[in-house]
Amino acid sequence: MPTFNDFISTLKTDLLDFAKENLDEYKDELLKDGTLFIEKVKSDLERWTEGLASGALSQADFEFLLKGKKDLAQMEALKQLGLSKIRITKITNGIIDVVVSSAFKTFL
Amino acid sequence: MITKAKLLPLLSALTLSLTIWSCASISVFSPEAYKQAVDLKVESLNLMSFATMPFADYEEEVFYLTTELDKAFEFSKGRPDNEISTEQWEILINEQGNLLGGFLKRWETEGSLSEMFVTEMQILVSDAFDTIIGLESGKIDPSEFK
Fold first, then answer.
1. Would you write out chain B's pLDDT as a tens digit for each of its 146 residues?
2. Which of A24, A92, A100, B61 allows an S-S link to B22, with CB 3.0 to 4.6 Å?
3. Separation CA B89–CA B73 (nearest Å)
């Protein structure tokens, strides 16, 4: 007859596998999004500075664009916050599945 | 010793508490909100391309677009647990801000805008809409909870 300790041991292993798989995927997504955003900021600034120098953009245009980029960064941060919450929900649902399947694997 | 009879209520309680905790955080996916954001992105970028011309010639179109944007904001605000998406809409359409709302206000104030400024603002506004669309499409479909 399996004991409660057997269940905990199975659960620990299953949860570790689950966490590793999900956290690695999340880390990769965050790094990709962050790197893309930084690259875009850099190329935008280069174009805007050139536009300012050539007279294609006024000082007011340039300032408006910079502030717009700041607003966009806020919206991007909100998106990441929302996606983190969604991931927590998905992970929680995954944990429920892991706990239930570990228990049934051990006891039934 | 854990028996089957003891195990099932324990698992049910755990499942219920985790489900309640996880569902309390953010709204589920709404196809209507997604479509609204995609449609408004296309309409906004299209209208912005005329901002090198006199505002007076496009006043009606701008009024129509701002009304549609306000509707999208109100729709977002009315959905439960949807504060994050609503805050995104608020930043996008804010007349005092520096994205779509601020752009339309500046067009009205200045009469017309320079070509490069319009093009660069279209890129920013397009990316801004994508943050709203990206968050909405990442939300969990209600059918996944069944």
1. 556 566 666 666 666 665 555 555 789 999 999 999 999 999 999 999 999 999 999 999 999 999 999 999 999 999 999 999 999 999 999 999 999 999 999 999 999 999 999 999 999 999 999 999 999 999 999 887 65
2. A92
3. 6
Contact between A51 and B128 using a beta-carbon 8 Å cutoff: no
Nearest to B11 among A75, A82, A100 (CB): A100
B87 touches chain A (CB under 8 A): yes
The alpha carbon dihedral of B135, A63, B42, A46 has a sign of negative
Contact B135 A79 (CB under 8 A): yes
Contact B128, B100 (CB under 8 A): yes
The C-alpha atoms of residue B58 and residue A33 are separated, in whole angstroms, by 36
Which one of B29, B48, B124, B143 would you mutate to disrupt binding with A, by most A Cβ within 10 Å of its Cβ?
B124
> Is the ipTM beyond the 0.90 threshold?
no
Q: What is the pTM of this model?
A: 0.81
